[in-house]
Amino acid sequence: MFISPQFVSDNLPVQLVLPDLNQAKALFAIIANHRDDLKPWMAWVTTVKSIEDEEAFLLNSQQQMYKQKLFLLTICVEGSPAGVITLYDLDFPNHHGKVSYWLSPQYQGHGIASRCLERVLAYAFNQLHLHKLQVWADAFNYKAQHVAQRMGFEHEATMKEELFFNDRYHDMEVFCYVNLAQNV
Question: Is the CATH number 1.10.260.30 carried by domain 7-131?
Answer without folding.
Answer: no
